[in-house]
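Protocol step 4 of 6.
Sequence for Protein-glutamate methylesterase/protein-glutamine glutaminase (Solimicrobium silvestre) entered exactly as in the expression construct, tag removed. Do not edit the line below.
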Amino acid sequence: MAIKVLIVDDSALIRSVLTEIISSQPDMEVVGVAPDPLVAREMIKKTNPDVLTLDVEMPKMDGLEFLEKLMRLRPMPVLMVSSLTERGSEITMRALELGAVDFVTKPKISIQSGMMDYAEIIADKIRIVAKARVRTRAQFLADVSQRTSGSLPALRSPLISSEKLIIVGASTGGTEAIKSFLLKMPADCPGILITQHMPEGFTKSFAKRLDTLCQISVNEAEGGERILPGHAYIAPGHSHLLLARSGANYITQLSSDEPVNRHRPSVDVLFRSAAKNAGKNAVGVILTGMGKDGAAGMLEMREAGSYNFAQDEASCVVFGMPREAIAVGATHEVAPLNDLSKLVLNYLATQGGRSLRV
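Step 5 output, C-alpha cells:
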C-alpha cells in the first residue's frame, strides 16, 4: 500500500516541488497540500495521512505550536522541511524535541532545482519516517521529567577519565537519543566523540543546544583538539570525525574524504579510527538510526578490544543501525536508551578497578 503524504508549506513552489518528487515514487502518493496549519488540521481529518511534511516557519500558526498540538492530539510521523539558516536550524532542533522524526533542508538558492537534486534523499526520508516509532506528548513530558532529574554520580577516578573514551554513533532519532545519553554524564566522564548524521550548519546548533543543557562541555569538533574528560565533540556536518593520537594524547581529526555508506560524517569512519587508535580504551555506543552505517566499524572496535553497547529496538525511533551492529556480532550489550549512560559508566568504573554505585 502506498505511503500517504500530506504536504504543509506556505510556499506554493515548495508544495509543487514536493508534490512532483513524492508523486514520482511508486510507493507513495500525495493525498493533499496545505498552505498553513489551519488548513492542514482539516485535511488530516479527511485524508488520514501516513506522513506529514511540515514547514518550520509558517503564517497564521507557528510550525512548532502546530507540531506540539498535533503530537498531543493526533500523534503521527512528521518530516520537517527546514531552511539552511541559524534560526531554521534552532527551530528544527526544537521540532525534533517535540516529536518530529527527521528533517530535510531547503536549498538557499535555486530552490526548485536544488530540491530536485536530492529527490532521492527526500523520498528515502519519507519512507523512514513512515516506519518510525512516534513519541506521544505524554512520552515527551516523561522524557523531560527524567532529563531534569540530574546526572549520574561522578566517577571520582582520574585514571578512568584520562585513559578511556566513549564513541557514539546515531542517525534518525539520534538528536534526542544523544541528548538523553549526554544529560546523564557527570562532569568528570571520559571524553566523548559523536557522529550524528546531520547537514552542515545544524551540527553547530545541535552542539550549542546540548552545551547549555549538559554538565559536560559539548562542542562541534574543529579538528586538532585534545580530547579532554568532561567534553563531547560532535562531528561537523561537512566532515568525517576521526580519533587520532598526538604523542600521549588523543585528538580529533576531520576529513573531507568521500562519503561512506552515503554519509559524511560517517559513523563507520569514526568507529574504525577508534578501533585503530584506542582499542580496549574505547567504549562504543550505537543508537537509533536507519541503515547499516557503524556496524562494520563497531565490529572492528570489538575485535580491537573495545566494549560495545547498542540501543534496544523498543526505545529506538528506527532500529536499523543497532540491528545491523547486533547482527554482525559487534555488540556486547543491548539495552534501553534510558539505561545506557548508567551501563557505560558502570562498565568504565569496573574497568578502572572500582564499582560505581548508581
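Step 6, annotate. The chain has 14 helices and 14 strands.
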